Write the structure tokens for this entry.
Amino acid sequence: MGCEAVIFDLDGVLVHTDRFHYLAWKQLSDERGIYFDEEINRRLRGVSRDESLEIILERYDGPALTPEEKKEMTEKKNVIYRGFLSQMTPADVTDEVRDTVRRIRKAGYRLAVGSSSKNTAFILDKTGLTGYFDEVADGTMITKTKPDPEVFLLAAEQLAVRPENCLIVEDAAAGIEAGKRAGMKTAAYGDAAKDRIADYDLEQFTDLLQILTIDTGVNV
Ligand code: BG6
Ligand code: MG
């Protein structure tokens, strides 16, 4: 497939922080009496914090909120969310993910994280994943989040690999769209794999090794 680099989404792919996003938004919505469920949460995958709030507010029928009130809500959500993140340790990364990423890197591929999250550096640090990647492109470095391709194009630029030689690994429909718009190959994991919109659907994380035709028998 001419692939030279793999760009991993973070939340919901490398770590299950997608669960913490859900719990934090749920707490905030419950406090405000706004209906929120897993189906709505699915639409928040990959999109920015501010855009997530707008999606949640589609079910809000109270008086119009000022920009200051919205800012207060996103800041509060982030405080709740960071409370969960601060408890994370390397044990929150599965052996399957850690070993697969290591094998891909050992096989000579360039690796990056491409995430909409402004908490990316914090999460990579807490889980001990920072050193596994050559580059990190995240929500602090971009102006438009997924489905815009900006974060993935930035990662490819950092890696000095052409977009068509990059494979994206994503759990969000917005992320698969971003990868396609960037002109990259896409592999869907978890939630996005149900949509059958990517070039590859992963049943398990290790399926990446077959896609990249890496010998899984190699001990690393
Ligand atoms: C993405 C998540 O990775 O990051 C989204 O899938 C989230 O759900 C976005 O809204 C922004 O995250 P953060 O950490 O900057 O609030
Ligand atoms: Mg994700």
